[in-house]
Design a protein that fits this description.
By secondary structure, the chain is mainly alpha-helical. The protein is 40% helix and 7% strand.
Length: 147
């Protein structure tokens, strides 16, 4: 299998982010961490991923400071993976992917998991805003490329 070219020196923030979390296992690990999964065995049970792949992705997420490895909260010999502040900043990305999937990948009425706020109500639609709080569409933005 061909090895993919690293993008960690690309001038594009999207390319660099995808280099770290762009494969499905890494992003699903982050999703599960938001859902409260903490232990290796629980990630494996939830995802059904091979142990070696899971260990590789967890190690990369820890090295990138998305997750932190800590002693288990229950005092056992186990360790837990916790989202760092940097990892918690991926919440909007996970919500955006969820809402896109809900909109385009399910038939009307087809059951799926639902993200709820603490008041029990569904989370509102995620919107991109300018610095004044006005909604932005793709045609309202542009990218200043590195010269």
């Amino acid at each position: 299998m061909a090895k993919r070219k690293p993008m960690n020196d690309a001038p594009c923030p999207v390319a660099r982010a995808l280099d770290l979390i762009g494969d499905r296992w890494s992003l699903l690990i982050v999703r599960d961490a938001f859902d409260g999964v903490r232990r290796f065995s629980d990630f494996q049970r939830s995802l059904g991923v091979a142990r070696n792949i899971l260990a590789d992705r967890l190690a990369a997420l820890v090295a990138a400071q998305v997750l932190a490895l800590q002693p288990a909260a229950d005092g056992s010999a186990y360790h837990e993976y916790r989202l760092t502040d940097q990892g918690a900043q991926l919440f909007a990305l996970v919500v955006a992917l969820r809402q896109w999937g809900e909109r385009f990948l399910f038939q009307p009425g087809e059951p799926h998991s639902t993200l709820l706020a603490n008041d029990g109500e569904p989370v509102g639609e995620l919107l991109v805003q300018d610095r004044h709080g006005n909604a932005l569409r793709p045609q309202d933005t542009w990218v200043k490329k590195v010269e």
